[in-house]
Amino acid sequence: MNTEKNCRNIAIYEFAYDKIKLTDPEWSHAFRLEEEYLATLNPDRLLAGFLETAGYRPKAERYPGWEMTEIQGHTLGHFLTAAAQIYASAKNPLWLEKMDYIIEELYRCQQEDGYLFASPREIFDRVENGQPAWVPWYTMHKILSGIIKVYEITNHQTAYRIMGRLGTWIADRTEGWTKEIRDRVLSVEYGGMNDCLYDLFLITGEERFARAAHQFDERTLFEALHDQKDVLNGLHANTTIPKILGALKRYMVFGKTEKFYLVTAQNFWEIVVKHHTYATGGNSEWEHFGEPDVLDAERTACNCETCNTYNMLKLSLWLFQITGDKKYMDYYDHTKLNAILASQNPETGMTMYFQPMETGYFKVFTTPYSSFWCCTGSGMENFTKLQEGIYFHNEEGIYICRYVSSDLVWTNGRIALKMEVVIQEDTLAVRIRFAEVPGRKFSLYLRIPDWLEEDTELFLNGTYLKGEIQNGYVFISREWVQNDMLDLHMKMTLKIQGLPDNERVAAFSYGPYLLSAGLGNVMMDMTVTGVDVFVPQKEITVKDYLILQDVEINDWKKHIERYLVKEKGRVAFRLNNQGEELIFTPHYARYRDRYGIYFRLYKKESRELVNLLEKEKQAKRLKNVMTDVIPVGNDQYELAHGIKGEKTDTMRLNGHPYRFCREDGWFSYRMKLQNEKQELCMTLCGQDVGNSYRIVVDGVTLVEDVVKKEKDEFYQAAYQLPLMSKPDHEKIITVKFQNLTGEGTFRIFDELYLKKCDERNK
Ligand SMILES: [Zn+2]
Fold first, then answer.
1. pTM value?
2. Ligand 1 centre from 239 Cα, in Å?
3. Domains in the chain: boundaries
C-alpha cells in the first residue's frame, strides 16, 4: 500500500491486493460473502449520525445496535476501510462510487475547524473532565483510518482534504492538554490514534500530526514492555494492542533513531503470544488480559475478542515485514485460519465477537443490520483482505508465507505464478507453477511451517530437489524457466497443545488445522451481555473432559494417534470417550454445533475426577441464584447498567478491576431487582480498612458501613434488600455508592451482583 512504500525500515513488502487472486474455494467464498453483505448496507444510514451532528437532516435513519450509542460512526470508518480493500482487490467501480459518495457527504459534514464525528463534540470534553463517556477517541481512530485508507487506495483528493482538516482539529485539541488532562484521556480506550496520526504525518509531512501522535504514545507502558516486563494483567486487550501498533508505526515512520519502539513492540508480541494466547491464536477473557500463563482458569464463553486477533495479525505482519523473522508469519498463518476464517458463518457471512474457549459453548455471530459491534467492524476489514500475508517481495525475490491456492501476477517483476494447495491423505501438497518468468535469476523463500515435524519434500519438474534451508525458509535461487513446476510436500501429524496452568488440558491439531469436537446442538440459546452483545449459553451439562481408561496421561499423550483415529479421505478423527464417540474436525469450519477445543484428561475413577465433579456442582449452585451481574470497570457492561457518577473512575489492583469514588464523589448503577428476597453482593479490599461508605437504593439509605480487614485480602460484603411488594415480576432500582471518608476513596472490585437469598447458598 502507498503508506508502506514510504515507510523506512521495511525490508519485505506486500503486494497490492489486485496482484493476488484467491482461487481457494473457501477463502474466496469468505471474501465474496463479506462483499455481498457490505453491498447491502445503506451508506445514508451509516452517515446519519454525521449529518445530524453537522446540523443537517439525515437522509435515512441510523442503524440500531451500537450505531445508536455513543460509539456511533465507528461502523462507517470500518466500512470505508473495507470498501477501499475490496476496491484494491478487483477495482470494481461500484465500490469507488460508494466511497466517493460517502467522502463527499463527509466533506459536507465537516465543520469549519475540521471537526467531523457522528456525536457532538462535548463527548470529548467529558473524557477530558473524567466523566463517563464511551470511547470517542477509539471511534475517531476508526473514522480517520477509514478516510486515510480511501486516500491510499484511490488517491481521492477530497479524502486528502478531509483527513488533513480532521488532523488539524485533533492537533489543536491535543496541543492544549495539561499532563492531568492527557492522563485522563489516555485512561479511556483510544484505539490506535497514534498509529493513524503517524500515517497522516507520513502522507502529508505535517509535523503537527506527528506531535499529536506522540500525545497518544504511552511511554510508561512502553518502557515496561521495553524492559520485558509483563504488565498486561488486567489491561483491556483491545485498548492495549493498538497502542503498540502505534509504537511500531513510530519506528516505521522515523527509522532507526526510534529503535526503542521496535523493541517495545517485539517484546509485547512475545509476551502476548507466549503467555496469553490460546490454541486458536486469540487472547483475553472478557476483553482483558489476565495473569501470564493463567489460561485454563480463564476459559469461559467470553474469550478471544476477535478485534484483538485482528490487531495481533496486523502487528505480526508489520514485525515480519521489518525483521523477516518467520515466527511472525507462523503465528499469522495459524491465526488467520483458526481464529479469523473460523469467525465467519459460511452460510450468512456474519462474524463473531467472543470466541469461547470453555468447552461446550458454540459460535455466535453478529446480526447484519442491528448489532454493529466493534468486532462486526473489524470483521468487515478482516474478510476484505484475505489475500494478505500469502506473498511478499523484496529486491531479491518472492516470499511465500501462507499456502493458500491463489494466483500472483507481479507486473514490475515480470513474474506470474499459480499456487495450488491440496490435501493428499496425510500430506499438504503445494504446487507452484510459473506462468511468466523474468529471464534472470530470482529467489524464492518458502516458509517452513512451525507445525512441520519432518523435512519438506521438494520436487522441481518432478525431480527431487535439495532445497537450501535459510532461517526457517526453503530458499531456491535460480533462473526459472516458463512453466517450471515446484512441488512441496509437507507431512501433517497429530499434535497436542496444553495450557501452562493445567497439565491435564489438551487441545489437538493436525498440520495447520486446529481441531475441535462437535458436542451436539441441544438448546443452543443465547443471552445478551454488555451492550447488546450476544453470547452463547450453556444451560445443559456438557462433558468437558476425557476419561482415559487404563493408561497414564503421559502415555496417552505420547501415543495420541492410537486414541484419535483418522478417518480415511478426510481430516476427521474419532475418539472413544468411555462409550461416547467424539469426532474432531478442523475448528475453522465448524459453526452449527457446540464444540470443545480443550479437554481435561482424567484417569478413570481417580480422586481428581471426583473432586472436579463436586467443584462444578458448587459453581453451578451460585450461578443459579445470581440475577443481575455487573463486571465492575468494564465500560460496556457499566453503560448497559446506566453508570453515572462524580469524581469516579476505574482502575485495576493486581488484576482485579475496580471502580472508585474519591472525596465527596459517588457512582450508581441501575440493576434489575426481582420480586423475591434478594441480596446486593460486592467485593471489597482489606487494604481500604477503616474507609466508610453509604449505599443508597432508590434514594433511600440501605446501609452505612466500614471496610474491614478479613482473612483474605478481597472479601464479599452482602446486604439484604427490602422485599418488594409490587406486583411486577421485576423492577429496575438505582444503587448508589458514596464515599464517606473525606480525603479517602471507596472502591468495589470484580463483580457487583444481585442474588436470591437462599440459606443453602450462604
Ligand atoms: Zn471487538
1. 0.86
2. 10
3. 41-206, 394-424+427-491, 624-756
